[in-house]
Description:
Layout: H1 2-20, H2 29-36, H3 46-69, H4 77-106, H5 112-134, H6 143-165
Helix pairs in contact: 1-6, 3-4, 3-6, 4-5, 4-6, 5-6
Amino acid sequence: MRPILLLMIAVTSAGVSADAQSTTVRPSLRGEFANRAGLQSGRDPGAYFLEALGGTAGSLLGMGLIGLASHCGVDDLACLIETVGAAGAAGVLGSTIGVSLVARATGSRRSIPGAVIGAVVGTGFGLGVHYVLNKGSDRNLDDVVVIPIFTLSQGTIAALGSRLLGK
């Protein structure tokens, strides 16, 4: 589990160092909001963490809505597969919206296609983490562990994708 946490920190740090090199300033109402919030229109590396937090919250909201609406029995494999797929898609959508809204509010560089790509990659990363944590185990992880893995990976990597492809 320790190497996975180190990898997540490395991914997050890469996004911050890429953001710290950006010197683009766009004056607008968004910039006014960012200045009032103590940010410097995309120059502040803390804006990346806010975007990742927005993406994580959006992913959690999307997955949570699907989870609350789903009523699968333990033996209904088709229902469980559909629910997991819908929750993943809702997480990607929620993460993209969360990252985009926070990036817009802070005046940071953003890219909706970059956020979508990042969220999809984050879903794959979450699957990899889930696999590594379950490997060699005779039981599956509970939702209390699985949901944070996916929401954090989707939100963090969606923010990174938005920054990397942002204008």
